[in-house]
Amino acid sequence: MSEKTTYLIIGIIVGILIGAAIGYAVAPKGVPLEEYNALKSENDQLKSQVTSLTQELQSLKNKYIKITAWSAGSPVDYYRAENLKSAAKILENLLRVLGINVTIEVDSYYEHVSDWGAWKSKFVAAFEAGEAPDIISGIDMVEAAEAGWIISLDEYVNKYEDLLADIPSHLWDAVKYKGKIWGVPQDVASQVFYFRKDVLRKLGWSEDEINALPSKIMSGEITWDDLAAIAKEAMDKGLVEWGFYHRPNWGTSLEIPYYLAGGEFYDLETGKLVIDKSALKDMYTLFYKLAQQYKVLPTTMIGTSWREIHMGFVNGRVLFWLGGSWHWGEWQKVEYHEQLGKLPEEYEWENIGFAPYPALEKGGTPLVTVGPWKYYVVSTSKYPEIAFLLCFFASTPPYDTNHAITSSHLPVRYSTVNYPPFVEKGGFLYKVSTFASKYGVSKPVLHPKWGSLKDILLEYLVKVEKGEVTPDQAVEAIVNAAKAELGDQLLVRE
């Protein structure tokens, strides 16, 4: 391979991956400059990586490669599958410039999943039958790593280190387990606290007061108790049926009050699960107050259907929704509104506001959790390096933008934030990105027994919200049950 050809390939790769960022050289707000500058990779390192790849793929010349991929998510996450197909075309073209005429077909299957246990069972059955895909998403990383379903990706991450610098380091940290990298970040989920502007108008709020609510939440001036009082007023005046809705199963939005109180569910040094009794009491006290004292949260939230929940908020029957950024996009794609069907985004801007999750006490700092969705390379794949590269190329700025705009997940790349189509169309996501960069934290829990602890936590959340136990009683019962289940894999902090 001539030096001219090598540098041509380098130019193509650099153009695809970081060209947009170089042309718009202002780093996104909140992004550390040293991380953003890491995008400017050295040409000799890129040359080494490209040359190494071509040497390994020479044996595939004139071959047909089929990669199967299973992706899952909400009704608006289908680009998780489509972007892998687009990535195959990028990789094909790069290889053809080198004279390696490989045809890469991606059979990418997407499923709207609400029962993640069934999704895992489907994958496990295929794996045991020798029919597993090359790429999988939507399964628990720790369980999959321990079971041998997926491979560690450190070899490839180290090999293409400079190309991967476009993805923030904290996202790579979130896909590590036992010191190894197991997944490729695909998007970023961020929790968002939503409120109905139209209901606040009916309460007599001015537009200035409504527009100031997010900043007052961010400053710690308005807390959960303040919002509960507002919700009670709206209910008492018959403006809404309920003040608050939260998700119907366990998820990170329910954990945020625990993190606000200083709790952790996972200890990075020991690799053990953690219960912080004080923080857990604060979390259950909040939900107890909302359901039993203020009576602004249904006592039957857990187990309510997702559709009923979305319809309640979208149709203005609920004032506050403890949701996520992707719901903004879902409401535009799924017919939840009883008159409008799918919501026009203009309707959302007019009637729905958003902010970080409020502080527990006056003057406290709000919080949102952020974390990546992941692609995994299955251990039975015949072409693991090809699969890895497809996962990586699937989030180049044009594809990252398509998925972000469609699904309302935050983009996974620095360069996407400054990519013109994203800047033009991603108004909601750009605003969420600004407060996520300031108040966002990543809280991965990387333990194979995390599912067992979540089940216990959920069981007692139901009892607390129904008033069957007090927060103090719940905490003691949870600690006892968790000790019996987890043994020495649990740390209890007072």
What is the gist of this entry?
The chain has 494 residues and is α/β, with parallel strands linked by helices. 51% of the residues lie in helices and 16% in strands. It folds into 2 domains: 3-187 and 373-437, 3-Layer(aba) Sandwich (D-Maltodextrin-Binding Protein, domain 2), CATH 3.40.190.10; 190-369 and 447-493, 3-Layer(aba) Sandwich (D-Maltodextrin-Binding Protein, domain 2), CATH 3.40.190.
**Total DSSP helices:** 23
The CATH top-level class label of the largest domain: Alpha Beta
Content-based structural category: alpha/beta
Distance between the termini: 64 Å
- Tell me the number of structural domains: 2
Going by CATH, what is the homologous superfamily of the largest domain? Periplasmic binding protein-like II
CATH architecture grouping of the largest domain:
3-Layer(aba) Sandwich
**Based on the structure, what is the oligomeric state of the protein chains?**
single chain
User: In percent, how helical is the residue content?
Assistant: 40-55%
Describe the sheet with the most strands.
9 strands, mixed
